[in-house]
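yo

u said u wanted the structure for the complex thing, so here. seqs first:
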Amino acid sequence: MLCRPPAFFFNLAPSIKLAALFALSFILFFIDNIVILAGLAAAPIIIYRLAGFSVGSLGRCLFPAAILALLLFLFQFFATDFAAAGRAALRLFALLGFAAAVTATTANSALLAALERALRVLAPFGLKPRQTALALALTLRFMPLTRQIWHDIRAAQQARGGAQSLARLGLLISLWLSRLVTMQEDIAQAIEARGFDDEEREDS
Amino acid sequence: MTIRDIAAIALFAAFITALGFVPPVFVPFFPAVPLSLHSMGPILAGACLGAKRGFYAVALFWILLLAGLAFAGGSTGPAAFMGPMGGYIGGFGLAALITGLAYYYWPHPIIAQEFLFMAVGGIIALYAAGIAWLIFLTKISLTQALWLNAIFLPGDSAKIILCIFIRRRLYRSAPHAFRV
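structre next:
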């Protein structure tokens, strides 16, 4: 009985999970045995259950890709044979299932921190960690505001009425972007006013 | 890179992320396939910020997507990259780069030129990356992959027209925002 989710999947370092996932994404393409592929496609279900999640939540994660996977299966089935189509679909589901398991058992903040650490490795190739960290922090700051402004503009347009058209959609997005740009400039000015001179600090 | 550049990159990364939450729309002359606005983000990032900064905005979006803080093609986290849409998501970077480069070399294009710039970046480059990954992932033939993509062509052409309209309006209202 699964009363408490075991900590193993949650405690595993995100960098190890990501590295394993990328390794698996390549290994999968060298496996042609349909039984092994079926086992690998079923493995994420076991991981999900062991981690304390329902199979339904995995299904919800995989649903958007399932439609395209079905289309690809049919393409393969008519072009080649059932076994080849099955192999392609199983590979896809195994990959997506493992990727969904990594996402489900890793906190967003832990994944983000792991990615920031990974980006530091690229510093000798010209990537500036402080600038990247600032850009990431600003993006996270902008994200809720961006959605809020979109909803405000959309609500105002709906209140005015009128039929939906491509021209109206274009107008809506250009208004949205225009307001976003104004907001971004205000924030950039505020950061500059606080004396954040990135070039100077980066060079020192 | 200045603070304003970094803020502009962050803004477009947030914009690309937000486009992933905008529900698909139906094009009047081609209602069979819903039009997802997501790929407009990298095209506009390249057209407004230039190749380098536009690419950085897409790279930030990739990080957020990998961390599960953004959506693409209904997926998030590593699954988004590993799924059938992975190639298109990778192609976002190519779309921003190519569109940005075109505007760098021809900074004052006429509408037909703009359509060409955005079509090369937002359709040809994006489809090329998407098709390559689709073939690798599913081992379908090039012809099959091309047919799968053909249904999206009318909608993507409509998106390019929208991008031209948006870019021109933004250029009139906030010319200082452009960093090409």
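The CA atoms of residues 112 and 164 of chain B lie 10 Å apart. Residues 111-138 of chain B form the longest helix (28 residues).
cya
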